[in-house]
């Protein structure tokens, strides 16, 4: 079992790979793994969209999910690193945003001098 989380736009449904958020040369091919969304909309425009679970139900769900995580991630001595990455689309958006910021910072420096 491979454990990993990928951060992506909500409209994305296909993830051939995930990219390390700080080192784009580190990538993990995701085929043939299965995906399960872990975030769900619970409020919109101040209105509750789903039923609220009681504390015991939420605690039980949390314990069940934690039990699925392999022991090598939960140990205190030499734990495995849990992989977290971003989608290709999010990575491309980050590159474009960084380029805009660099340009604006450069223009700011020119004006400031």
Give the CA-based shape: extended
Tell how many strands the DSSP assignment holds.
Answer: 6
Q: Uncertain segments of ≥5 residues (pLDDT<50)?
A: none
| Major sheet | 2 strands, parallel
Task: List the keywords.
single chain; about 110 residues; alpha+beta; two-stranded antiparallel sheet; 3 helices; about 40% helix; extended; NAPRTase_C; Nicotinate_pribotase-like_C; Nicotinate phosphoribosyltransferase C-terminal domain-containing protein
Question: Could you walk me through the main structural features you see in this protein, from its secondary elements to its overall organization?
Answer:
38% of the residues lie in helices and 16% in strands. It contains 3 helices and 6 strands. With 113 residues, the protein is of the alpha+beta class. Strand 2 and strand 3 (27-29) form a beta hairpin. It starts with a strand and ends with a helix. It has one domain (4-41, 53-112). The protein has a two-stranded parallel sheet with strand order 1-6. Strands 2-3 form a two-stranded antiparallel sheet.
Summarize the structure.
The chain has helices at residues 55-68, 71-74, 88-112; strands spanning 4-7, 17-19, 27-29, 43-44, 47-48, 83-86. With 113 residues, it is α+β, with helices and mostly antiparallel strands.
